[in-house]
Amino acid sequence: MRPGRFHRWWLIIILLNVCLPALAEWEPAEIVGLPYPPLARMARIEGIAIVRVSVGPDGSVRQAEAVSGHPLLEKAAEENARKWKFKLSGRSGRIRDPYLVYRFVLDGQCAAGDCRTSCVVELPSLIVVAAELPEVQVQRTEVTERRVQ
């Protein structure tokens, strides 16, 4: 495992330890899937986006604000988080806003028009969005050289 990946996993573990207690007060009641953002896929952007969600008394999302991540991934994660619905769990005490951690992963290759994408929610707060990359086809053209005399 490369050192960069090792540090990313430790970051995820630390963030989940911070996020899980907050989300324990709010349970997802309605989860909406997320396709991999097309521009991020074309630019081959991977990473983590963390979204702070403000939940209203009825369980609908009042506000979703990205606190970390690449701008293309943040935007997609915020839009997705706004579609979720939550319900209060049986815990009492001070109610905190939950955080959702989105992990975007590019893996594998596919034909140009047949790329798969998946969204897996690992409750309570980790969403893994994965997609395949289209194969890059290189067309070689012959260049003829002309000598000017």
Q: What percent of the residues sit in helical stretches (DSSP H or I)?
A: 10-25%
| Number of strand elements | 7
Query: Averaging pLDDT over every residue, what do you get?
Result: 80
The share of residues in extended strands comes to 35-45%
Give start-end ranges of low-pLDDT stretches: none
Shape: elongated
Detailed description of the structure:
With 149 residues, the protein is α+β, with helices and mostly antiparallel strands. It has a single domain, classed as 2-Layer Sandwich (TolA/TonB C-terminal domain). It is 25% helix and 36% strand. It has helices at 3-23, 38-42, 71-81; strands at 26-30, 47-55, 61-68, 85-88, 99-110, 117-122, 126-134. The strands form two sheets. It has a five-stranded mixed β-sheet with strand order 3-2-5-7-6. It is elongated, with a radius of gyration of 20 Å.
Give a short synopsis of this structure:
The protein is an alpha+beta fold.
